[in-house]
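User: I'm writing a short report section on ligand binding and want a predicted complex to refer to. Could you take this sequence and 1,3-dihydroxyacetonephosphate and write out the structure as tokens? A short remark afterwards would be nice.
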Amino acid sequence: MQGLQHTTSGARLAPPPRLTAAQRLGVLPMPNLAWTPEVERETAHLYEKVKGIIPPVEWPFHAPYVKAINDLKRERNAVILAHNYQTPEIYNCVADVVGDSLQLARLAGKSDADIIIQGGVHFMAETSKLLNPHKTVLIPDSRAGCSLAESITGADVRVLRQRYPGVPVVAYVNTSADVKAEVDICCTSSNAVKVVESLGVDTVIFLPDRFLAANVARQTKVKIIAWHGACEVHERFTAEELQRYRADDPSIEIIAHPECPPEVVEVSDFAGSTAAMIDYVKTRKPRRVLLVTECSMADNVASETQGVEFVRPCNLCPHMKRITLPKILDSLVYLREEVTIDPALAERARRSVQRMIDLK
Ligand code: 13P
Ligand code: SF4
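Assistant: Sure. The structure tokens for the complex follow:
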């Protein structure tokens, strides 16, 4: 039976208990978090990046954490992968890699660090673990979920397969490993149409985001059978509110994430993944732009772009905001919270993520 070991006499023994990351690698002392001249000096170049967003009076609260995290990353040979929705002090001052879901998944597979800390939500940390089964993957707060990932289970996918025999299943990466293990291939918002068309069939099941499914359906002849999930951040935007901004300033450029309802995408000038939205702003340098997505995106792009005025209809992702500098520091000191996935399940889930990554 899987998971059991045999003695020479043939008796079965339970497998040895798994050691936690803290037991394997040891806990470190908590660094001093005082605001000192040394901290000020060593973090001055990082404050330069965020001075337009973080007021000087707040920096003494962030800077000791920034310095402690960057020191401990070197000591632990750890890397921080941060999604574009992380707060500016994480995105600009402690992240080693920033990006959209596809970029983070690709880079997670290439990292040579011993420890990966995910600045993002739980499904992202699971994806990193799937692609790095032998590394320690930590998420600073395992309660950082996602309304899309929570809308469907592996058992739901099995029911869908029974209802639509032979129809391949495409899962957005915003799903649990349990769901990824049941599907044919994953996709992100930046490659969804390409993934759907790569299957060479006339119908696919696309889950769990009904809005992304509808936005993909408008760009392909493949028939899409959608699940009913939605992103709690993007589903709140309405076409009417965007039209009001347009009426106030007809020259404003409106760019939206494809997790928004199709009627919102319809009245926007462009729709794309968070990385595609950032590229749009950096390349086109619009005079005024409305980013129809999570709040921190505008702060993060603003910190990297001069001469663009950002209009921010601010919808926060409460899950992304669970990740903070103090929790990242705790992760590095105490090596928590470790992401673990049953190896047999991980093997099946990895296949659907890898199939997406291998798609050229
Ligand atoms: P992307 O960064 O892949 O566009 O995804 C957005 C998102 O909502 C992740 O939670
Ligand atoms: Fe999930 Fe939406 Fe938050 Fe992204 S923004 S993590 S899709 S709830």
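A remark for your report: Confidence is low (pLDDT under 50) at residues 1-7. The chain has three domains: 12-144+321-334, 149-231, 235-316.
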